Amino acid sequence: MNGPDDSAPGFPADWPSECPPADANGPDGIFYRLVHGVPPASEDFVSYAEAGKQVPAARACEARGLSLFTDISDAFHYLRKFPSLGRGVASAALTDQHGKVKATPRGPASSHCTWWPFASISRHSLFQPVDP
Amino acid sequence: MWAHTGTKAAWPKIEALDPEHVLDEYDGPRLFTVRDRDGDLLLAYHCGEDSEVERFLLVPADSALVTEIQTNALPLRAALLGRGWAWIVDRKRNGTLDGPFRVNPRELPEDVLPAEGVCLASEPLPFLQLRLTGPGMAPGSVAASVVTAALEGATGAIRLLAGHVQRVSTISGRPPEAFRRLYDLPAVRFSFGSLTIAFASPLGVGQASLDDDEVLNGVGRLLRQGLDWASAMTGAPPNATPEWRAIVEALARLAPPSRGSVAEVEISGTLAAPNGGTRYLTRDAARRIVEARRVLVADQPSLTLEGCVREFDKDRLTFILRDPNGANLRTVSFSERQYDDVWIAFESDRRVVIVADKMPDGQMVDLAALTFADPDPPSPEPPDSAA
Questions:
Q1: B217-to-B181, B247, B269, B271 alpha-carbon distances in Å
Q2: What is the pLDDT of residues B299-318, one digit of tens each?
Q3: Closest approach of chain A CAs to the CA of B78, in angstroms?
Q4: Does the pTM of the predicted model rise above 0.80?
Q5: Contacts of residue A109 in chain B, CB cutoff 8 Å?
Q6: ipTM for this prediction
């Protein structure tokens, strides 16, 4: 019998148990995120929890994830709503090699999802800026 | 982090930003309500962040305001600017607050607030939207000439590009009203916080012919090509081709003037940015456009003609301009706005001077301006008899 594969990508050890949630799946498609510059930088991919912000216990897992959109128009809409979040939009083709995602629609943005990237992933290098 | 000039305020009494109701979030709460120690409701909007603090703009709120935001009845910018009072609060990573600082939200940097007209939920993009910003574009001080220039700039740019696309394509023999319909865009929204004008597609649902689609697709392609070039501020000047002449002339109609109250024009909508983004024409971009025009645009297609209006066709909105000997000068297309002037000229037989632009078919011209010629021109000065 084989033991656990130590080389398999995993999530940070200090994340809460049950995080990502059981109903999160491997991503498969194009995803969009707001970024501040070209090319996207690692600072554009820091989660709420990684930034050291105060997070209610009930949101502890979601705060480990990053907001993404599957609909590019939702991404540009957020850029116009919250200019503080970035200056442009970047896209990436994500697969199950990159972590887990779960659809977490916000009222105003039905394509919003949360991405829990594997610990070993260089997140920003996956993303390329897209034209408006 | 951007600087503000707010003054420390004793009110509202608030020690933490614990959301009572989250209206929107991205990674975390970005728009939410909170209550101060007196139980008063405030709306908090995320307007800045650095490695140490998050900055929020707080304005007084009530359930009616929240409902208006949630039902998309009120744009976010209007919600934040229209409450009279506003405060900045900086939240450190440990949750403690610095502030509140009382501010005038209208004096905050433009790019820390929601874009004009943007609501909580996205709405279908307009066909074309222009937003003019600059030091003289404060509410209540936008000159009528600026509004006129923006309207004519948008329609003039589309007209130029549509004319070029039609000239180089296989589309021919279209009546002038079909061509005019492509650029005489229906204006669907005006906003005067800074001047914003949104246009709908010139073609209603189900009205587009294949020719119309082909022309408008070509217009969008050329417009985006031009905006990319103008805003890049690097790279070679455009080639001296008819296509680039049309593009540069169209950009010149959209760009901010080198002087005056408008310093930047934001251009969005499906025609300019189909993905929902915004493109910008700054004064630097405008200078680039001026330089390119100096080189590229040598042959102005406008004509100035003098004659009398004959064969007035009120159905097709055309007339024939003839010289005093009855020879045809041109068949001229005009708009409904020009109908009365043309009718007076036709009925009165008065001589007119017109400025007209060449239409894509090369035969007809499109009326830009009409004035009545002086019926009794002064006779030439007699020779100086004293000499």
A1: 15, 14, 13, 8
A2: 556 789 999 998 898 877 88
A3: 12
A4: no
A5: 121-122
A6: 0.92
